[in-house]
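Quick illustration for those who missed Monday's session on complexes.
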Amino acid sequence: VRRKRDSVKKLRGPPSPSWLLGNELEIRGQAEVGDLDFAWSREYGATFKIRACWGNQVVFTSDPRALQHIFHTSSYHYPKRADMNQSVRNITGRGIVWAAGDVHQRHRKVMNPAFTAQQLRAFLPLFQSTASRMSQKWKDSIQAGDQTFNVSRWLARSTLDAIGEAAFDYRFGAIDNAQSELSKCFENLFADTILYPPKWDLLFKALWRYIPPPILQLVEYIPTKEYRRFRNFKALAKRIGKELIEQKADGAIAEGSSRDMLSVLGESNTSEDPKRQLDEDEILSQMTTIMLAGHETTASSLTWLLYELCRHPEDQATMRDEIQALRARLPSGTDFTIAHLDSLTFTNACLKEVLRLHPIVPSLERTADRDDIIPLALPITTDDGETLTELHVKKGQDFSLSISTYNRLPSVWGDDADEWNPRRFLDSSREKQISIGVYANLMTFSAGVRGCIGWRFAVIELQALTVEVIEHFKFALPKGVEIMRLPAGVMVPMVKGKMHEGTQMPLHVSLAEE
Ligand code: HEM
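Prediction with protoporphyrin IX containing FE bound:
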């Protein structure tokens, strides 16, 4: 009998400091997102082997062809790891991010009509009015003498209000009230829960895949801070979701567009077609998912954009000039349209560049559900000197797929891939690359059947917010403040030496001369 080949044994990789914890403690304990990923990729190439807890071997890759194979070509054959998925369930319940296989297909079918390009373009005026309400608050603060704000908190309040109105026709009131129940529940949610986990939790979670689901679900009741904060968030979001559904049924919420998310979800509850049905708990979980995925991500990306623009004031000025020049060409009082926003070449290049350099979700975990051969664009050399152009893997093989490393591959982005350089997106002579991501060929929104459903929503919202704040304000890093990119599952900003203060991006904000 021919034994099946398994290339994983032959892969090189960093030494594992412990059998019990493998490289897991180093990875989760990195001072900043990507430190180890980038160093290891430089040493071992785009594909190598790391160790997880209990001696488990994980293939780490940022290889473009491998990512294309795993996310696109293989459709549902690389499901999320069972333990990671339970963590998702702890936060958002049985929504679309948690759902797998056929169940995921059903969720996606229900949700797709709320995310068509046409539907999302119609949200632009809403994004603009939300941005301008926030900017008015900033002007008031500056006039009152307060010039240093935690912009990440403000942006999260603004995007929370926008998702509330866009998805549910409902104003959470987060811009007007910093104490709103939902915004308070989001504060430091990831920093308090996923950042720097204790060893017991790493070892415990690595065993989750062996626990039958009905028993595993009980982990959400573990009485420590991580589990409690997620439980409280989920309970609050579902309670709000239920109230919104009831208000809609009573006619208290105006009929918006017939395809808005709440209507789409409402239809799924009464649909005759089993492929388009969601039960009540799935609907509430979906609303919880949208409340979370639909605002923090966009707000964080913009936070990092403002940070980079502080570090590159000349780019900040170029962007402002571009926006103000367009404004000067329009009759006064007219708002920018989607076509106007898309015409801001330099501004859009900066948006792509920040999504490249600071992907909010830095990596994704997957498992092969069958034996497979994975093609590689960047061949690797094994310990015994063999060159591999493909990987033979066995069913059950775990993968760590590094978005942040792919987004910085010199072979894809050029030799200056580690640096901020928006002009790379203006260079039309760049070679054609293996097609992966939905936007600018980045992996930031993931890809394939489980790629981000909200990427267009995010891009339009980012454009609207960026234009509003850069047109009216100037940003600078306060003296002595060093910002860090903390690995809290998602990437969060904190101030070096002030981590006890939690997630923040304090920037000095002043009025731009009109
Ligand atoms: C810059 C902003 C955003 C980034 C970087 C981002 C990134 C991602 C990534 C990496 C995934 C894949 C997660 C996984 O496989 O576990 C994802 C999925 C998802 N995102 Fe986004 N996202 C953004 C904005 C949004 C917005 C605005 C919405 C909703 C309005 C949204 C809704 C979702 C949903 C529902 C999924 C699950 C899709 C599925 O499993 O089918 N995202 N996003």
